[in-house]
Amino acid sequence: MSSVIIENVSRFxxxxxxxxxxxxxxxxxxxxxPGVRERVLWHFESWxxxxxxxxxxxxxxxxxPEATISPLAVTPSQxxxxxxxxxxxxxVLAEASSVAxxxxxxxxxxxxxxxxxxxxxxxxYYDQHGLWNYCAPATLAIALSYWGWEGDRTDIGRxxxxxxxxxxxxxxxxxxxxESYTGLRALVRAGGTLDLLKRLVAAGFPVVIEKGVYLRDxxxxxxxxxxxxxxxxxxxxxxxxxxxxxxxxxxxxxxxEDLLWQWRSFNYVFxxxxxxxxxxxxxxxxxxxxxxxxxxxxxxxxxxxxxxxxSGLEQFFxxxxxxxxxxxLQDYAGAARAYDQAFSLMASLPxxxxxxxxxxxxxxxxxxxxxxxxxxxxxxxxxxxxxxADQPYIEESFIWRARARLALGDTAGAAxxxxxxxxxxxxxxxxxxxxxxxHLQP
Length: 442
Description:
single chain, alpha+beta, Serine Threonine Protein Phosphatase 5, Tetratricopeptide repeat, Cathepsin B, Chain A, 18 helices
């Protein structure tokens, strides 16, 4: 047992020991006191997770694709509708550490003068602490507050993560909440740039971005995790953005260099919220990014350039982004090859550098492998993702495994996964639709 676990067990008993020694009514009274029960349960959970991760390190589990096309025929009633696409030419890795890509110049922004410094005000700060995995609801609450929204983070949480321990909320789910519950508009785009962030902020639009950060987990180790934040300002002289970060603090500064590195791991995705009457203004600032398809072309170009220019973990993210962009352009065969390269590279990285939580947040590989008939790779990737998580509250992985199992004729296994997805995310639309198609009883 590691020294980290021993130390945390010691801390737990220093706190919980006196409570556990109190008997009868006294213990019952303490257990009902605000905060006591939550703290005891948190210590128990921390201790349990640390032991499990010490015995079965999640970063040691890697997915290596088979890269074969399933020969099994599937009737239309067994699967999702498959678009007809013509694969584009893609970079194919000769080795996991090199990419055969001819670098193309990234688009150069039109040199329109920007203010040297911008700080948007009027928003309210919400932190994510005290509730499970509450980054997304808290961050969206911050962003909405700039437009006069009067709700609270828990109003959002009840809708986007009805099961409190759900690992992640997707950007499209945040946009759907805005469109359905607030009277505001929202759009999600990929392939953003630092210049575009500045231009949106300078025009008065705070921007939600999803990025990768290193935080300490239950095991006491720094690990890569997905994280949302609101970009609300920038300071050109200092070379930094000002963010409203639900984990760290309000007005949390992040250098341009750090934000670029963090943002890369999520294909430079961003969410803009705006009143309907200001839509034309937003679209003018976005320029080519006003069109979602064009934004993925921009993201693909950026990923192609970075895949040839970077190495190691950064190259993994670039290859993954290339695949994600192709998925959104419906080139599933090309995307599958890009993901194959990315996962092969990931397996070659040192264990402490592997972003093993990647599939908690991004599901592009499932689309790519499923729509190219690689159902066993879908299942194996889902198995790896679910098995590495101490608490596998990842409904997307269960529903994709269900689809693949159904395509392979495993109706019972598919039904079990659909029910699990609905348990972890009640009302999850893909799970509801598949349950209805399979005529499953609730």
